[in-house]
Amino acid sequence: MLSAVEEAAESTKLWCGAAAAMAWLGGWRGRRAAAGGLAALTVAQLVSNGLCKQLADRPRPPKEWFPHDEVDDRPDSSSFPSGHTAAAVAFTAAVTPAWPAAGAACALPAAMVAFERVQSGAHYPSDVVTGAAIGLAAAWLTRRAPRLLLCRRLA
């Protein structure tokens, strides 16, 4: 089950599919939630994968710690932070204020992605916690950015 969630979350397919469903089925609220989720996801990916992984260059957990074959399929990039978790949390946290029911529906797969990243041997728990923090910050920033920019223009 966890491998299926991880596979769906690969390259943000799960979140893009959720955004498409929200936009199609949710009317104005669905389109707003989808746009906010995708914006936050993009910011989280840029920060986690584009910046932090380049600076940290942390090795993945040792293969010997994991008694399964999934550990052989993990990426070669830096372990810190978890970009999958950052994207999942960013999308979910950004969708929730616009459409709470959709955010609640996204919460379980987002938690499963975070858990799977540690269970599969791709990340240390601290990588996942940091990815979640990046996701929350990205959701907050994308929700507040228009107001912050408007306030600066008026001042």
Automatic annotation (TrEMBL):
Where's it mainly located?
Answer: membrane
* Topology of this chain in the membrane: Multi-pass membrane protein
- Show the ranges annotated as biased composition (Basic and acidic residues): 58-76
Q: Where is the signal peptide?
A: none
Q: Which UniProt keywords apply?
A: Cell membrane, Hydrolase, Membrane, Transmembrane, Transmembrane helix
Q: Where in the cell is it found?
A: Cell membrane
Task: Describe the location of the Phosphatidic acid phosphatase type 2/haloperoxidase domain by residue ranges.
Answer: 35-143
GO molecular-function terms, A-Z: hydrolase activity
List, alphabetically, the Gene3D superfamilies matched.
Phosphatidic acid phosphatase type 2/haloperoxidase
Xref: Pfam families: PAP2
Output the Gene Ontology cellular-component terms. plasma membrane
Chain intervals for the UniProt region annotation (Disordered)? 58-80
Q: Which domain of life is it from?
A: Bacteria
PANTHER family linked to this entry: DECAPRENYLPHOSPHORYL-5-PHOSPHORIBOSE PHOSPHATASE RV3807C-RELATED, SPHINGOSINE-1-PHOSPHATE PHOSPHOHYDROLASE
What this protein is called in its record is: Phosphatidic acid phosphatase type 2/haloperoxidase domain-containing protein
